[in-house]
Amino acid sequence: MSDPREPILEVRDLVKHFPLTQGILFRRQIGAVKAVDGVSLRLYPGETLGVVGESGCGKSTVAKLLMNLERPTSGAIMYKGEDISKLSGRALRAVRRNIQMVFQDPYTSLNPRMTVGDIIGEPFLIHPEVAPKGERRKRVRELLDVVGLNPEYINRYPHQFSGGQRQRIGIARGLALNPEIIVADEPVSALDVSVQAQVINLMERLQNEFNLSYMFIAHDLSIVRHISDRVGVMYLGRVVEIGTEEEIYRYPTHPYTQALLSAVPVPDPVASERRERIILAGDVPSPANPPSGCHFRTRCWKAQPLCAEVDPELVVPGHLREAGLPVAHPSACHFAGQKPEVTAG
Amino acid sequence: MLLEVRDLRVEFETRDGLVRAVNGVSYTVEAGRTLAVLGESGSGKSVTAQAVMGIIDSPPGRIAGGEVLFQGRDLLTMRPEERRRIRGDKIAMIFQDALSALNPVLTVGYQLGEMFRVHRGASRAEARARAVELMDRVRIPAAKERVDDYPHQFSGGMRQRIMIAMALALEPELIIADEPTTALDVTVQAQVMDLLDELQREYQMGLILITHDLGVVAGVADEIAVMYAGRIIETAPVRELYKRPAHPYTKGLLESIPRLDHKGGELRAIRGLPPNLARIPSGCPYHPRCPLARDVCREDPVPPLYEVGPGRASACHFWKETMGE
């Protein structure tokens, strides 16, 4: 991928293995859950990178690693060219100011004993340089206004708000320190359908207003298409395909992406009858014991002996290179190729 | 008619006062047909189903009126033991969360077999054989080896298959599935929905599919009932509802969801929030969020379900405008 732009955030060969141990006194490691197994991604300034995948694919672990809530087993996380994965103390705090997170569950991610004002203002306690003491309440009111909540609500408690409003509070807290990057892990999946659109629109407006870069992690493929400029598809700890929104949704070349797209129920009875669906057999294998070679091969209809032996790399497949964009984009499959009838149109 | 719900009302006594969860819901389900009940949280879609099954916690819940006619007989006025027999034999329910619906300390074989022992007086060995058969039927691989496993040893999709197997065990005439695939991943969801669809056809069962997912509905339902604030606000055959919704809420929902097939511009969000059921707005409960709302919408009584076409109804005074007529 030769992109002339400088990424604001980049992960390189990121690996996170959680040890599986046995015994109480003498804890022996008997294996590892390979939650993230060599992920490389780039986030460019002002863009939204969507990360999709099913449960257990490692997308949330990637988010935690980016936020330094977990330490990677190996690999690097580069923020503006500097590896932040080994930072601690003051240096880490300084970087964190610029990378904030919005969580999935607006019910458990807000402290029920704190007022909204205290929740949104709490980041200022750690980063007092952002807002001097006398101005913090004013700043919190501004933030409430920015996310579309009444600034008069500053003394209310989380339980007095609906799910959608709570997610707005979480977003306001994320914005408090004027970050450059927001990592959002399933930010709307706990919300009602009629409220999801409000929050998505809000996030898009804020992105334009504050020139934010989003890492948007979700399992809902329609929402990810709507909000993302580029999309990475994850399966069992690896990115299997990455490209622009159009490349992934209209010209998917990895069999997993094709199956995933074809399985999404579309809200259109006519189209849903016409669509050819690929029903995958079986479940996702355990990340503690992923298949050799290509992780997807156990459920793949294209699998050959080669797939068990050689890990496919996430590169533009050689045999697709002459097709040019949009077909030729990175896809980690030995037999990558278009299957036009299953694209999302 | 397999099932006919008439003017059902359910209330809950809470600290916030009386919560009117279901306010006069009527619908019918025929054998071999699928009715999707679509709604957001708090719309009353699940409570309606629980009332049909007779599993509303009471107190605080109370059925405040209406009839639930199963093959012409009212379940609500039936003697409890008679009702229990129908519920086990003829109506079955599939829940969203299979892990909490299955007993964690009993093997799945025991739980499946229990259906035959209790309802059919089968012997242990016979019940076990039937359990294996059922697991095969819902395509659980290596059913014979897995019949003695516990629920936690299965994946989410497999557990949901076990739930379906349990619901099918006594070959019921009606299945109520409450968000059966919501907890599942997309690729597994497709497997489970396909299985349910196929089994329903094969056994010619009636199916009530309760969901919030406009996509799932489009694939499997014959008719749709859209609920809002404890009422049905629109009913229609599935294709027509998607093609030309007759209620602004349905229309708003369809317009607000992002599409898989194109990126699209800004989403047309529905403003505001679903109402608090302890304080339902006067008149049409959707009026505070509705772009078409006028004075008549704010005034009681609630708009009736106008007949807007063959097999179609909408509880909107301005259904013509909504449909673009």
Automatic annotation (TrEMBL), chain A:
This is Oligopeptide transport system ATP-binding protein. CDD domains: ABC_NikE_OppD_transporters (cd03257). SUPFAM superfamilies: P-loop containing nucleoside triphosphate hydrolases. PANTHER family: D,D-DIPEPTIDE TRANSPORT ATP-BINDING PROTEIN DDPF-RELATED, TRANSPORT ATP-BINDING PROTEIN. The keyword Acyltransferase does not apply. It comes from Streptomyces zhaozhouensis. Residues 9-261 form the ABC transporter domain. One of its GO terms (molecular function) is ATP binding. Keywords: ATP-binding, Nucleotide-binding, Transport. Belongs to the ABC transporter superfamily.
TrEMBL record, chain B:
Residues 3-254 form the ABC transporter domain. The keyword Nucleus does not apply. SMART domains: AAA. Its main location: membrane. One of its GO terms (cellular component) is plasma membrane. It is found in: Cell membrane. InterPro entries: AAA+_ATPase, ABC_Ni/Peptide_Import, ABC_transporter-like_ATP-bd, ABC_transporter-like_CS, Oligopep_ABC_C, P-loop_NTPase. It comes from Streptomyces zhaozhouensis. GO terms for molecular function: ATP binding; ATP hydrolysis activity. The keyword tRNA processing does not apply. It is a peripheral membrane protein. Keywords: ATP-binding, Cell membrane, Membrane, Nucleotide-binding, Transport. One of its GO terms (biological process) is peptide transport. Gene3D superfamilies: P-loop containing nucleotide triphosphate hydrolases. Belongs to the ABC transporter superfamily. This is Oligopeptide transport system ATP-binding protein.
